[in-house]
Amino acid sequence: RPMSLSRLMRSINSSIYFSDDVHLTINLDRSADPVTVKFSQILKWPFGQKSIRYRIQQGGLINAVVESYNPTTNDDYAIILEVSPFYYIWAKYTVLKYRYDTNRNLVALFFPEIWREFQHYLSSRLTDLF
């Protein structure tokens, strides 16, 4: 995993962010190896705030994805991908184009208010199962 994280960070560090403030959150599972943890801690992120979230219990892929994005406002967006250096250009223009478009069936772009509803729904469903 440290090599994958290093490759990902090289891609996003060489991306174009215009002059936007772009925050970075690194989510580490409980099983993250010490090299990956250390790399995450010493990593410099000059484009905004960097935070690291450590999972206390092993969660698996579904939990990792669902819990990775916790929008606090309707202008809080996330990208959960291994990306090319041009990902932010694509993401910015995609948000600008589709945010208020009534025909949203051509792209999988999740907006914060809908994602919070999905998290609440999924949490309720999973609670009912156990």
Automatic annotation (TrEMBL):
Protein name, UniProt field: 7388_t:CDS:1
Organism: Racocetra fulgida
